[in-house]
TrEMBL record:
NCBIfam families registered for this protein in UniProt: argP, PRK03635.1, PRK13348.1
Species this chain originates from: Stutzerimonas kirkiae
Residues in the signal sequence: none
Family affiliation: Belongs to the LysR transcriptional regulatory family.
HTH lysR-type domain: residues covered: 2-58
Protein name: ArgP/LysG family DNA-binding transcriptional regulator
Coiled-coil blocks: none
GO molecular function: DNA binding; DNA-binding transcription factor activity
One Pfam family, short name: HTH_1
SUPFAM superfamilies recorded: Periplasmic binding protein-like II, Winged helix' DNA-binding domain
Keywords: DNA-binding, Transcription, Transcription regulation
InterPro entries recorded: ArgP, LTTR, LysR_HTH_N, LysR_subst-bd, WH-like_DNA-bd_sf, WH_DNA-bd_sf
Amino acid sequence: MFDYKLLSALVTVVEQGGFERAAQVLGLSQSAVSQRIKLLEARVGQPVLLREVPPQATEIGRRLLNHVQQVRLLERDLQGQVPELDENRQPERLRIALNADSLSTWWGEAVAQFCADHQILLDHVVEDQAVGLKRMRAGDVAACVCAAERPLAGARSTFLGSMRYLALASPAFLARHFGDGVKADGLARAPAIVFGPDDYLQHRYLAALGIGEGFNFHLCPSSEGFVKLLLSDLGWGMVPELQVREELDSGRLVELQAGLRIDVPLYWHHWRNGGELLGQLTRHLARTAGKWLVPGPA
């Protein structure tokens, strides 16, 4: 059987970003919190924390965190069914993985009122939409938004809609590199901007034009910085239409080739035994995400 005092110490250290603040929240000495973590590690036979600043959970630590989160969600359901247990209910904390482009565009508007109504605090874990499911597989999060349709064993997936990406650049960049018009062979030589090693949107765009793997690019792991680099005439790149409507309307950014877009399907994944709260959030997202996302996959 789990000793939930030990698990609570682990959760609090991770959520508070350190042993000192965890001790204040738990009403214990810092030494007592450290002893609980050591005892938990002795019980499971391996480290549950990397002693960094802030402390990070190991793989087994993430699995324990996910277990505690699921237990909390089920306890919340029970509190709703037994009013006597519902005194002094604290906000529930959910760890959710999602891509940076969703976080910088539609996600906040979609969940803000729901979080206020249901007393939810969110821990956002940013991962590219192509690989976000690995966070659930590792037991790190209770749910994720990603491009994979097939759910993990013990989980469910719901199609939310597709995020539309446009290939954009500034007029000055186009004039410098494509004075005679945008041509496929020129795109391989003109520098692109890529979000990170898991971002293959630019590759897909070039492949649609018959261009192979090789092309020049800058790396920029920031959604906001990505757009700023485009506006600075540094390169061309694939950007969510949601993020740049003002820049498109003003002409500060323009499409490389009108009509050639990439729609990336987004799916909401969550654990089946995550309790009614996750079910309610799933139904809420299924109803509302269509306000921002296009209705079908690519």
